[in-house]
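ligand=nicotinamide-adenine-dinucleotide
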Amino acid sequence: MTLQEGLGMQQIRYGLVGAGYFGSALGRALAALPDARVTVVHDPLHAEALASELGARVTESTEALCSDPEVDAVIVASPNWAHVEPVILAAQNGKHIFCEKPIALGYDDCLRMVEAADRAGVLFMAGHVMNFMNGVRRAKELIAQGAIGDVLFCRAVRNGWEEPQPEVTWKKKRELSGGHLYHHIHELDLVQSILGPATEATMVGGNVAHRGPQFGDEDDLLVITLEFGGRAFAALEYGSAFRWPEHHVLIEGTLGAIRIDLQDVGVELRAPGRRESFLLHRSEAEDRDRARIYSDSSMDGAIMYGKPSLVPPLWLQGVIEEELSYFHGLLLGGEPLPEFAALTDGSAATAAIATADALSLSLREGRKVRVAEITGVDGGRSRHSAGEEGR
Ligand SMILES: NC(=O)c1ccc[n+]([C@@H]2O[C@H](COP(=O)([O-])OP(=O)(O)OC[C@H]3O[C@@H](n4cnc5c(N)ncnc54)[C@H](O)[C@@H]3O)[C@@H](O)[C@H]2O)c1
């Protein structure tokens, strides 16, 4: 099946790999869309409850789900380490794919996934959900209109403090989640969606305050600088070793600046003679809900780890709805939007993982790393050929 033949279907039957905190939310959001059905669920621990809620069948293996004739598209929401296998199996079986972030925990795996989808001619969308926040879309639109001139610098901060957890989940283990940088790849993806792929990457940090049996082994304090061919720069901070919680992205241009506040919630443009504030999410209620969660005791700054027993907050359900409506719309033959092209041509996924890998290498070897050392191509461009095939 080519991509063109595959798109424009009347109804999409979804298979869900992973039915924990996020997979369940994705499944429920899909089931609520017109012309969508979740037909099959695979999860070694939590498939039954969601499948019965959504009127779906349970399969015992990823292979069975990916080759199921009643599945047109596979939604991958298994833990981060377990994305590669279902994506490649789905592609080999001619199924369209939506995969949660981080797409992979290494560039070579990411490339194999993108190339498998390319070869099969199926749609492969990266679940970089931040792109679907209304305020982020508006900020990028303003930047494209020249409202802040040429972007020179971005600062992204996602900091909080983490107390000992009753149980150490896969999300705290570097080998399974990739740690803060990969698990929260949103800000890195956003910065690169504005400035393009980074050319040089430097990271310092380590696990400075979360050692011992009540914690995983991820680094809890990461300080990053990125260079963009000498024309622009970025500084990012991530971690759970910060007692002063902060979560924002600041974009500085030659004519003005935009600050996306993910903690006190809202977006602001400042330029000489111009000030504009707008919502981050779809409504005052969603923005307020987010601000409340950050300010009450349910979060330590930007540190929140969903568990299978939890339901995502209102604002996150809203963004999931926007994101999946777009994916579903493409499968039904909808018009692709240029603003989201990088999510479906493989470039956002590969650029994010390439830069994350370059940063990891920088930390390990204590030096600045050219992203080309990871991708094999100078200028920070990924060596994949996804865009050329028009996925
Ligand atoms: N975009 C976002 O904002 C966002 C938010 C939360 C989670 N996520 C992503 O969603 C994915 C799932 O995270 P979560 O929060 O639901 O975690 P979770 O631990 O709540 O759920 C993971 C589920 O996967 C199941 N599982 C384990 N191994 C599996 C396998 N090999 N195949 C299929 N299922 C398997 C587990 O039994 C569990 O039910 C992760 O990739 C995570 O990064 C994204």
